[in-house]
Specification:
globular; 8 helices; 7-stranded mixed beta sheet; single chain; 15 strands; 293 residues; 5-stranded mixed beta sheet; alpha/beta
Length: 293
């Protein structure tokens, strides 16, 4: 059996302190890792994007130090993907391809980085869905072709994909606008392959779905969680560092459950955005009509 600690949206920054809303990615990650000190039997730690909030070298260096220390004590490998808040150049300077010893790497014309590594018989492929300056995600054609070629040869126990923008969405306007915009192309690429699990972040809440034969899991954020009890069309983020533990190879698997760190501010509001603010976010960070067409 393989066990993966799945993290996303750590949002570390250069300062290492709270932002204007009181969200503190460094403190949240430290609190979460401290609470997960009992998780000794891990094979991999996967961070699906928005590692940094400001794209700074300092943020990536701190993430590397904290997570390598935690994973190293468990002899687990750490893998990273980019998210919409990340900077590809700084990410690559500190974290490389996101893999320590990748078996295959994709280098795109715009700096996209994807990688593949086999861990205990499972092939882990990280993909780069970042669209600079935007909130939505997209997989370029070269990256999809690279993935297609890799999947021609099955892995011993199957393939896991990890990337930031979910290829699925709830009936929430901002999720539909800022998720992966070419999920149909990804679905066609993995159809009939050995891809059995897709791990994502970005939405700061947990979602379970399917894409073709693969289970899709969206993990809640480390720095904050989105509270869907807010009025439709608005958005409320709350404190509460969270992660997911993924069990592969178990009966009835994959088995996935969420882990929430104890926090005196658990559930307290980080920020609230009304309908007008959310419409502005979608207009500014969402795809243009040309992209949609």
């Amino acid at each position: 059996m393989m066990r993966i600690l799945h993290l996303s949206d750590t949002h570390l920054d250069r300062s290492g302190g709270p932002d204007e809303d009181g969200a503190d990615g460094t403190a949240a990650l430290c609190r979460l890792l401290g609470e997960l000190g009992h998780l000794d039997d891990l094979d991999a730690v996967i961070v699906t994007g928005d590692v940094a909030d400001d794209g700074s070298h300092e943020a990536y260096t701190r993430a590397h130090e904290l997570l390598s220390g935690y994973a190293g004590r468990r002899r687990a490998s750490v893998f990273y993907t980019t998210g919409n808040h990340d900077d590809r150049t700084a990410f690559a300077d500190v974290l490389g391809s996101g893999h320590v010893q990748p078996e295959a790497v994709y280098d795109g014309a715009a700096g996209e980085r994807a990688g593949a590594t086999t861990v205990h018989g499972y092939r882990l492929i990280t993909l780069d869905t970042l669209v600079p300056g935007k909130g939505y995600g997209r997989l370029d054609g070269g990256q999809l072709e690279w993935l297609r070629e890799l999947l021609v040869t099955p892995a011993p126990l199957g393939t896991i994909l990890a990337f930031h923008h979910p290829p699925v969405a709830l009936d929430v306007d901002v999720q539909r606008a800022l998720g992966l915009q070419n999920s149909a192309e990804l679905a066609e690429t993995i159809r009939g392959s050995d891809v059995q699990l897709i791990l994502c972040g970005h939405f700061h809440l947990q979602i379970l779905a399917r894409l073709e034969q693969a289970t899709v899991w969206v993990t809640p954020g480390v720095v904050s969680r989105i509270d869907l009890t807010a009025r439709p069309g608005t958005e409320r983020a709350v404190h509460g560092p969270s992660a997911s533990l993924v069990h592969l190879g178990a009966p009835h698997g994959p088995l996935i459950h969420t882990l929430h760190a104890r926090d005196d501010r658990m559930g307290k509001t980080v920020y609230e955005a009304d309908e007008e603010e959310m419409r502005e976010v979608i207009e500014r960070l969402g795809p243009s009509p040309e992209v949609l067409n």
